[in-house]
Design goal:
Organism: Salix purpurea
Distance between the termini: 62 Å
Pfam families: CAP_C, CAP_N, CAP_N-CM
Helix content: 25-40%
GO molecular function, one term: actin binding
Radius of gyration: 30 Å
Order of helices and strands: HHHHHHHHHHHEEEEEEEEEEEEEE
Family: Belongs to the CAP family.
Strand content: 15-25%
Protein name: Adenylyl cyclase-associated protein
Shape: globular
C-alpha cells in the first residue's frame, strides 16, 4: 500500500513540476489535468504501484546490472503512461506521425536491448528477459486489424512468451542459490501476466482511444506548411454516382448476371475440334531448351529482399536472404562482433575466427561452420539446419526449430545445449579414438511429468523394442 502511495505522490509531483516549467497555472492546464485524471491513466498508475514495486524491490536487493535494467523498465513504464496521457489530447496520427509519437518509448527499448550486446555478463538471462519483455509495451502502437500486429491483449501475451524462455532460466539457475533472483523473475512475469494484460483487457482491448475533439497543432509562423493536397478518399470519385450508372465489376457482376434470368451459358464460346488440345498442331510434346532452363533456374535472392553479407557499425555481421550460396565466408572478424543470419535457404556460411555470438533466424536448409563463440550460438525459427562447431561454444540454444544437426568438436563437448519447442535434434560427437566415426545422439523431444513428493519430476520418454 505504501509503495502504491509513493508512486501516486511522485507522479503528482512530476506533473506539478512540468506545469511550473511550462509557466502555466492549474486552471490553464485543464486539458492536461483532465487527461491525467482519466480512469485509464489512474488505473495505469495503480498497475505500476501494484506490480512494479515487487520488481523494483527485488532488483535493489540484487543490484548491479539487474538494478540498472529494472530502472530502465521503470522509465519505459513512465514513458508509456505519458503517452497514454497524450493520446487523450491528440488526434490519431498517420503512420509517420505514429512513429514520431512512439519515439520516446522506442529509445528506452533500444537502451535495454543495448545491454544484451557485447560480452555476455553473469546476468545475461536477466537482461535478455527484461529486454525481450519490453516488446509487450508496444501494444500501444496497435491501430487496427490491418496494422500487422496482434490485438493488444494477444500482443502482450505473445511478447511475454519470448521473454519467458530466459526468465525460466533464471528460475532454474537460482532456485537453490539466491531467492532474490527468483523473486525478481516471478515479479517480472506477474508485471505482464496478469498485470499489463489485465490492464489492457479492462481499458484498451481494441487499442488506444485517440481524442476525437483535439485540434491539430498549428505550424510554426516562421516555416508555414504548404497547403495540403486534396484528401485521398478510400473510395474513388465515381463512387458518389448512382450504382446503376456504371457496370458492376468482379463478383458483383457475376451475381448480377446469374440473377438476370438469362441462360447461364449464353455468353460462352463453343469449343470446336481444332481448338482441343489433342488436335492442336502447335503442341508437339517436346519442351524447348530455353523453356526448360527458365523453369529450372534457381532464384538468386529471396522475395523478402536483396541478399546481404556486410558488417554494420563495425559490430554486427548481417547475412540475409542468401539462397543457393554454398561459399559464404566471414574471415575478418573479432571477439567483439556478432553474426546475425536471417532468411537464408540452401546455403553454407563459414565463420573463420572468434566472434561474440551467432544467431540463425528463420533459415531453411542452412549450414553453418564456425570456430569459437564467446557467448552463445542461437538457432531460432529454423528448419533443417546443420551447425558445426570446430572450436568452443559455452552455449548452443535451439528454439522453435524442426530438424537440426549439431556437430561438436572435442573442445566443445562441454557445451550446454538448451532446447525449447524443437523436434528432430541430433548431436554428433567425436568417437573415443581419433579415427573413430562420429557418434550420433538424438536429443529427447517427448517427456513424462510425474507429480511426486510435492513437485513434478520430468524424465525423457524412452522407447524400447523389447
Amino acid at each position: 500500500m505504501e509503495e502504491r502511495l509513493m508512486v501516486r505522490l511522485e507522479s503528482a509531483v512530476a506533473r506539478l513540476e512540468a506545469l511550473s516549467l511550462r509557466g502555466g497555472s492549474v486552471v490553464e492546464s485543464g486539458g492536461y489535468d483532465a487527461a491525467v485524471m482519466d480512469p485509464s491513466v489512474v488505473a495505469f498508475e495503480d498497475f505500476m504501484g501494484t506490480y512494479f514495486g515487487r520488481v523494483s524491490s527485488a532488483g535493489e536487493k540484487i543490484g548491479g546490472q539487474v538494478l540498472e535494467v529494472t530502472k530502465i523498465l521503470e522509465r519505459a513504464l513512465n514513458v508509456q503512461k505519458e503517452l497514454l496521457i497524450k493520446i487523450k489530447q491528440t488526434q490519431k496520427p498517420d503512420l509517420a506521425g505514429l512513429a514520431a509519437f512512439l519515439k520516446p518509448l522506442n529509445e528506452v527499448i533500444m537502451k535495454a536491448n543495448s545491454m544484451t550486446e557485447g560480452r555476455r555478463s553473469d546476468f545475461f538471462n536477466h537482461l535478455k528477459a527484461a529486454a525481450d519483455s519490453f516488446t509487450a509495451l508496444a501494444w500501444i502502437a496497435y491501430t487496427g486489424k490491418d496494422c500487422g500486429m496482434s490485438m493488444p491483449i494477444a500482443h502482450v501475451e505473445e511478447s511475454w512468451q519470448m521473454a519467458e524462455f530466459y526468465n525460466n532460466k533464471i528460475l532454474v539457475e537460482y532456485k537453490s542459490k539466491d531467492p532474490s533472483h527468483v523473486e525478481w523473475a516471478k515479479a517480472l512475469k506477474e508485471l505482464y501476466l496478469p498485470g499489463l494484460r489485465d490492464y489492457v483487457k479492462s481499458h484498451y482491448p481494441l487499442g488506444p482511444v485517440w481524442s476525437a475533439t483535439a485540434k491539430a497543432k498549428a505550424a510554426a509562423p516562421s516555416a508555414p506548411a504548404p497547403p495540403p493536397p486534396p484528401p485521398a478518399s478510400l473510395f474513388s470519385s465515381e463512387s458518389s454516382s448512382p450504382s446503376s450508372s456504371k457496370p458492376k465489376e468482379g463478383m458483383a457482376a457475376v451475381f448480377q448476371e446469374i440473377s438476370s434470368g438469362k441462360p447461364v451459358t449464353a455468353g460462352l464460346r463453343k469449343v470446336t475440334d481444332n481448338m482441343k488440345t489433342k488436335n492442336r498442331a502447335d503442341r508437339t510434346g517436346v519442351v524447348g531448351a530455353s523453356e526448360k532452363e527458365s523453369h529450372t533456374s534457381t532464384p538468386s535472392f529471396s522475395k523478402a529482399g536483396p541478399p546481404k553479407l556486410e558488417l554494420q557499425m563495425g559490430r554486427k555481421w548481417v547475412v540475409e536472404n542468401q539462397i543457393g550460396r554454398k561459399n559464404l565466408v566471414i574471415d575478418d572478424c573479432d571477439a567483439k562482433q556478432s553474426v546475425y543470419i536471417f532468411g537464408c535457404k540452401d546455403s553454407v556460411l563459414q565463420v573463420q575466427g572468434k566472434v561474440n555470438n551467432i544467431t540463425i533466424d528463420k533459415c531453411t536448409k542452412m549450414g553453418l561452420v564456425f570456430m569459437d563463440v564467446v557467448a552463445a550460438c542461437e538457432i531460432v525459427n529454423c528448419s533443417g539446419v546443420e551447425v558445426q562447431c570446430q572450436g568452443s561454444a559455452p552455449t548452443i540454444s535451439v528454439d522453435n526449430t524442426g530438424g537440426c544437426q549439431l556437430y561438436l568438436s572435442k573442445d566443445s563437448l562441454g557445451t550446454s545445449i538448451t532446447t525449447a519447442k524443437t523436434s528432430e535434434i541430433n548431436v554428433l560427437v567425436p568417437g573415443a579414438e581419433p579415427d573413430d566415426d562420429l557418434v550420433e545422439h538424438a536429443l529427447p523431444q517427448q517427456f513424462i511429468h510425474m507429480f511426486k513428493d510435492g513437485h513434478f519430476e520430468t524424465t525423457p520418454v524412452s522407447h524400447s523394442g523389447g
